[in-house]
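re the bet — no i am not wrong, look at it urself. input seq straight from the record:
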Amino acid sequence: MTFFSSFDDFMVDTSKSEEINFGLLGLKRGWRLNSKAWRRNWRACFGYEAYGGDAALSKLESWQALCSEVSIEPIPQSITQCRKALARVNVNICDLLDCRRTGGKVHLFRTKWQLIRYTHLKKRMFPKEAAKEDGFLRALLKNIF
């Protein structure tokens, strides 16, 4: 079950990003930007939509699936190796989640600085707290300030 499916009166527009869908839902629900309700639901949204939701996969298989998703080859054979490999990947987490939803291929940046520039320019910043809670996405966090 996704975050959005818990709202019977809201239809997700699959042509739009998670952030835009969240904003539309927030308008419909009357959540003021950065209010307690907005922040609570933002964390809940990205907690539900984040990685690791497939109960059929083992923990190692989930890490390996994330590695595959960001084109790490060869696929690491341990969780520690997966984490180390993912730490070297420069990917925008919002884009990664959007590509997962749409089936598109995620863009990888050659350098951390390209990722930082893109993230600030497009204002596509994933909430740090949500990524830290997820564990899988935490491995992709970069200090961008």
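see?? DSSP finds seven helices and no strands in the chain. told u. also The chain has one domain: 15-140. so pay up
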